[in-house]
Amino acid sequence: MKSRATLVLANHRSESVYPAKRLMETHDAVILEEPPDDQFRRMLSGQVSIDSYIESLDLEYPEFSRRMSETLRELHVAGKELYQVEPFLGKLIEIHEHFAEGGSPADLKAGTDLCIVYAAERNATAALINFYRVSVRGTFEETVDAVKRFARADARRFLLRDRMRAGAIVEVLRQGGAYYIEAGQIHYPLWQELKGRLPTDYPLTVRFLMADAVREMGYRGNLYGPGDLLTLLYLFHPNRNTQEDDQLAARALIYNKMIIKEEIVEALDPYPHTRDELEIASTVRNLSLEDCRHLFDLICLASTETARDVVCHYLKNK
Description:
Elements: E1 4-9, H1 17-24, E2 29-32, H2 38-45, H3 50-55, H4 62-77, E3 81-84, H5 87-100, H6 113-137, H7 140-173, E4 178-183, H8 190-195, E5 204-208, H9 211-216, H10 226-236, H11 243-258, H12 272-284, H13 289-299, H14 304-316
Parallel strand pairs: 1-4, 1-5, 2-3, 2-4
């Protein structure tokens, strides 16, 4: 059996399920980006209905999860092996259970995975809370700085996740066969982490799942908004501090106000989220730092629809 692996980068959108299924079918096994869960196994075997399984989860995109669960059950029945591999999130669940039982952070032994994961999560969460606070009460410059601080903390958290996950994935790959490795787009550095642990001649490829859809819509590149681009830069260059960082952070403020947050499911458009992300990213690339400073005051408390109107009107009359 010839061994190979494909690291597939995509966000959790319902429109990504079908292309994911087609690619999964060309592999022997699928390594999912989630910690082991007995309910998942019961869902695959039919002991628990997909509806009951979905209802038991706290989901941002329930339609994506429903469609993916249906796909994974079909693959399971067809004989594909499915692995849930996400050590960081598994440790995070352990930490939450520890606190729920009355434990405290002081109980986490220094140097252990639990302590390291707790520190990374705590620091990223603190930076996010600080951003929320500053974005309401602070100046534009202070808010841009808060975005950068969160992106740095988030990058450190993602790097830890990728390192932990790479180690666990390699143990699965040792069994041989063709593996589809699921990962969010922000986890592009997972490719480096895997390459560093696998034999130099191991065939590992990286694929952006929605690349064909992006080209079909006439765009180039990948689905990274300015905030994700900033985080990726800090993942690869943790000590960088340039004017470009300020530009990306400022554009991220505008992008996040304009992007649709709710799950979109439209029969007439096969790629509604992809289209929205591409269009908004293209729009904010036209904004200078001064443009963002001006728009920030106008849209910081506005709805998504109003923010879009304000930014488009501003660019039209610029």
